[in-house]
Design brief:
Shape: globular
Strand content: 15-25%
CATH topology: CNF1/YfiH-like putative cysteine hydrolases
Strand order of the largest sheet: 3-4-7-6-8-12
Radius of gyration: 18 Å
CATH class: Alpha Beta
CATH superfamily: CNF1/YfiH-like putative cysteine hydrolases
Number of strands: 13
Distance between the termini: 38 Å
Number of domains: 1
Order of helices and strands: HEHEEEEEEHHEEHEEHEHE
Oligomer: single chain
Length: 265
């Protein structure tokens, strides 16, 4: 049973190597939580209809793994925007309505919550600046990735030293989109046609959000890679909004990806 275990987040070898001593990160899965039913496992979605006390316990377990108090695990009120928040201390009151957070303060774990969209963790280990972005198609399309890099630079990071890793998200094998979606991307840039492949449904296409995200990160001048884990396909490990829709389920859980500058003082 998932709720009889501790969290076991996936780690990025590239982030581990680049970050070195003093930066901790994890792409958390469903493993290690106390929620049940459709939320089975480590549901950290405060916007879900799961029991609030179970969500709080799940978030506490994530914070504990990250080495911070629950009050210092920060995730935004995500709205599929290109906006970024610079965190200097724990949130006071309502969470900011943004889709990325950056910080240079030790002991503050910043996070992105997802259920098919792409969680991207950033680190400049030399400057000791980190970032976490929620990059669905809309956020990636409108610039949340590039804006996260700019916000990190405002804290002293250098983009050529930034490493960014895309965590578990929906794969192109399971991301079918309609003709209006394709038109939006191709009209913005004809080169975007390469991110679409034919689907079995007339007029529709399969969209490679992962490749699109990584290409935008690399075009922004940072070192980037994807973990290549599919939230839709790997049901035992990940929540998936699209899988929930296909099954006509009433709601869905969310997973969290977090990074922190450890306070070694």
């Amino acid at each position: 049973m998932l709720n009889e275990t501790k969290p076991e987040p996936i780690r990025s070898p590239m982030l581990e190597k680049a970050a070195g001593q003093g930066i901790r990160h994890g792409y958390f899965t469903r493993v290690g939580g106390v929620s049940n039913g459709i939320y089975r496992g480590l549901n950290i979605g405060t916007g879900s209809q799961d029991a609030p006390e179970l969500v709080r316990e799940n978030r506490r377990r994530v914070a504990d793994w990250m080495g911070v108090p629950a009050t210092h695990l920060l995730s935004a009120h995500q709205v599929h925007s290109p906006d970024v928040f610079v965190a200097c201390e724990p949130f006071d009151g309502e969470r900011p309505k943004v889709d990325a957070i950056v910080t240079d303060r030790p002991g503050i774990a910043i996070a992105a919550t997802t259920a098919d969209c792409g969680p991207v963790l950033f680190a400049d280990s030399g400057a000791r600046v980190v970032g976490a972005a929620h990059a669905g198609w809309k956020g990636a399309f409108t610039g949340v990735l590039e804006n996260t890099v700019v916000a990190m630079e405002s804290l002293g990071a250098r983009r050529e030293n930034i490493v960014a890793v895309l965590g578990p998200s929906i794969s192109p094998r399971n991301y079918e989109v309609g003709p209006e979606f394709v038109s939006r991307f191709v009209e913005a840039d004809a080169g975007n046609e390469r991110y679409f492949a034919p689907s079995g449904k007339a007029g529709h296409a399969m969209f490679d959000l992962n490749r699109y995200t990584i290409d935008r990160l690399r075009q922004a001048g940072v070192t980037a890679e994807a973990l290549d884990r599919c939230t839709y396909a790997e049901e035992d490990l990940f929540f998936s909004y699209r899988r929930t829709v296909h099954r006509n389920e009433p709601d869905y859980g969310r997973q969290l990806s977090a990074i922190v500058l450890e306070d070694n003082g």
